[in-house]
């Protein structure tokens, strides 16, 4: 496995060399420009990005830019600061995960396994927290508001999608719909496939985007 490491912190880089699985080759980059050049010249399996305090918000946007220009590259951010707004920004744009810079060896192994399976890593509880936090910005009781791709889903799948957007866990959705948790998981798998998304965070943000668009139309036309 070849890993591009955009990292100017020698201590963090040394730690990554220690905790990465055997067979991983880490290639260091000191800037966004060098990173793009290396990506264009080599085939990398992963891109690890250390986000320090210096120009933190700028680097968050640069991580998003890497994702947009190289959609197949697996990107994991390692922010020094714990910022939920930065996490929402990066993960909602397709960044594959974020972790502590000094992550333990076994934890990194788990992260890589989750990312390789096509899921977002942020910790299950953290992803739920992100969804619930983002839902507070959309105050609406109208569940009839459409969202992109809603016409591709069955009535039950739409119900599942709206509950996920409210921050409910699978067990809670199952209780609301009086079905098994296994059925909810099956509905989510079908939803992801139909909407070409990978995870519940992307689904939640898609539903909320539709709600915001409808509310904006009401304000403009009201």
Structure report:
Helix 6 packs parallel to helix 10. Residues 138-142 and 214-222 have low confidence and may be disordered. This protein has helices spanning 10-19, 32-41, 56-69, 84-92, 105-116, 124-135, 155-165, 170-177, 181-195, 200-221; strands at 2-6, 25-29, 46-51, 74-79, 97-98. Strand 4, helix 4 (84-92) and strand 5 (97-98) form a beta-alpha-beta unit. The protein is elongated. Strands 2-1-3-4-5 form a five-stranded parallel sheet, with helices on both faces. The chain is an alpha/beta fold and 222 residues long.
Identify the notable features of this structure and list them briefly.
disordered C terminus, five-stranded parallel beta sheet, 55% helix, alpha/beta, 5 strands, 10 helices, 222 residues
Overall mean pLDDT: 86
Distance between the termini: 55 Å
- Label the structural class: alpha/beta
> Largest sheet, order of strands side by side?
2-1-3-4-5
Q: Can you count the helices?
A: 10
Q: Main sheet, how many strands, which sense, barrel?
A: 5 strands, parallel
Oligomeric state, counting identical vs distinct chains = single chain
Radius of gyration: 19 Å
Residue fraction in strands: 5-15%
Estimate the global geometry from the Cα principal axes. elongated
């Amino acid at each position: 496995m070849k890993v591009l490491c955009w990292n100017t912190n020698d201590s963090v880089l040394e730690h990554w060399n220690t905790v990465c699985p055997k067979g991983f080759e880490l290639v260091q980059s000191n800037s966004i420009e060098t990173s793009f050049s290396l990506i264009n010249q080599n085939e990398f399996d992963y891109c690890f990005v250390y986000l320090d305090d210096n120009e933190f918000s700028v680097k968050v946007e640069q991580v998003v830019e890497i994702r947009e220009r190289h959609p197949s590259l697996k990107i994991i951010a390692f922010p020094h600061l714990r910022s939920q707004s930065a996490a929402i920004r990066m993960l909602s744009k397709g960044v594959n995960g974020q972790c502590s810079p000094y992550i333990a060896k076994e934890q990194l192994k788990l992260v890589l396994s989750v990312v390789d399976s096509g899921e977002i890593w942020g910790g299950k509880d953290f992803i739920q927290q992100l969804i619930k936090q983002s839902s507070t910005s959309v105050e609406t009781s109208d569940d009839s508001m459409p969202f992109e791709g809603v016409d591709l889903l069955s009535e039950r799948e739409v119900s599942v999608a709206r509950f996920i957007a409210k921050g409910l866990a699978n067990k809670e959705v199952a209780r609301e719909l009086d079905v098994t948790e296994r059925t909810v998981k099956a509905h989510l798998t079908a939803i992801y496939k139909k909407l070409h998304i990978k995870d519940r965070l992307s689904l939640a943000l898609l539903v909320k985007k539709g709600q915001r668009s409808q509310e904006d139309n009401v304000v403009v036309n009201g």
